[in-house]
Design brief:
With about 350 residues, the chain is mostly helical. It folds into three domains: about 30-105, 2-Layer Sandwich (Dna Ligase, domain 1); about 110-150 and about 155-165, no CATH class; about 180-330, no CATH class. The protein contains twelve helices and six strands. The chain has helices spanning about 1-30, 50-60, 65-75, 95-105, 120-125, 155-175, 190-200, 210-220, 230-235, 250, 275-280, 305-320, and strands at about 40-45, 85-90, 110, 150, 290-295, 300-305. The chain has a two-stranded antiparallel sheet. Helix 7 (about 190-200) crosses helix 8.
């Protein structure tokens, strides 16, 4: 009788202790945590539950790694905790923290790819971003859409490039379907090629349609495009920058891309054009302009005739040399080194 009473008392004690422990554990699991300000913590790939717990304790997000591990095993056994960068709120409970990590809703960052970069330059920009991982191959020129993309820490550079390629393919299909019927382009690839030249010729939004119109007019009239950026691409390719002014020798040196030396469009794009350049090339305004040259304000002066173009060139050369036009309003003659028929000189 005494032994039975003792066992009963012991069991009662155990049940009470377990109940109290469970009550305390549940309370600790759901009560506000120690964080007083919002905090971003990175959970690295390959981290186990205890590794995560120790990181969170070290960062002051939770009070004890033991409670995190126990809570996950007992209260959230089916939760699949994912690596990544997470933001935790002030006072967030252990239960809520586990739910946050299981959700996979990581912190998102932005990466902006400007219009007009070559694919090689795009890859270089992604390689300079230490949030991303992997070493990708350089995609085909003109297949990426310059835009601002959302990325997360640990995301692969290949994944970003694929997103850019998918976005470009989708946009290109839409623009090609809505192109002007008389644009002398045979394929979406030719549209990208023309748009890439437009993109490199001007950085001004309001000028892209005008520049596109000049090149479309020249294509229609079987005139050579004579675009300086094609000279540069023919020499340096995807590196993008010549690093010096274009010389007479450069203009006269034939390459597959030099539109002073070849008829029509080059064999492919010379950069990755943006949406505005693609739209301008697909639907240029109706003009008679065949030439353009810098006007000294960051824009260009457009002309329908060679005579007017030569006057615009002379004005630009005077601005370059810091000289004033001759009396009577007549500008000095354009230097002989400048090919008078070049639209972009």
């Amino acid at each position: 009788m005494t032994i039975g009473s003792g066992i009963f008392t012991f069991l009662l004690f155990v049940f009470v202790a377990v109940g109290l422990a469970g009550w305390y554990g549940q309370r600790a699991f759901t009560e506000p945590g120690p964080l007083t300000t919002e905090k971003v913590v990175n959970i690295p790939r390959g981290a186990g539950v205890r590794d995560m717990a120790e990181i969170l304790e070290r960062e002051g997000v939770i009070q004890s790694w033991v409670l995190f591990v126990a809570g996950q095993k007992l209260a959230r056994p089916d939760a699949s905790l994912k690596a990544g960068e997470y933001v935790f709120k002030p006072g967030q409970s252990v239960a809520s923290i586990i739910d946050t990590i299981a959700s996979g809703k990581v912190v998102l960052h932005q990466v902006t790819i400007p219009e007009g970069l070559t694919s090689q330059q795009v890859v270089k920009r992604l390689m300079d971003n230490d949030l991303l991982t992997g070493t990708p191959a350089v995609p085909q020129e003109g297949t990426l859409l310059p835009e601002t993309y959302r990325i997360h820490r640990g995301m692969t550079r290949d994944a970003v490039l694929q997103e850019m390629a998918d976005a470009q393919k989708k946009l290109l299909a839409t623009i090609w379907a809505k192109r002007a019927p008389d644009v002398p382009l045979k394929s979406p690839q030719e549209l990208v090629t023309l748009a890439s030249i437009v993109e490199k010729e001007t950085g001004k939004d309001d000028e892209r349609p005008k520049v596109a119109a000049v090149f479309v007019n020249r294509l229609t009239k079987k005139m050579r495009l004579q675009s300086d950026p094609t000279i540069i691409y023919g020499i340096v390719g995807g590196r993008g920058s010549l690093g010096r002014p274009i010389s007479r020798t450069d203009i006269a040196t034939a390459t597959a891309y030099n539109t002073y030396a070849i008829d029509g469009l080059p064999p492919g794009p010379i950069c990755n054009p943006g949406k505005d350049a693609l739209m301008a090339a697909a639907n240029p305004p109706k003009t008679k302009d065949l030439f353009f040259v810098a006007d000294g304000t960051g824009g260009h002066a457009f002309a329908e005739t060679l005579a007017d173009h030569n006057k615009n060139v002379a004005r630009w050369r005077a601005i370059e040399q810091g000289a004033a036009p001759a009396q009577g309003g007549q500008p000095p003659a354009a230097p002989a080194a400048t090919p008078p028929a070049a639209p972009g000189r």
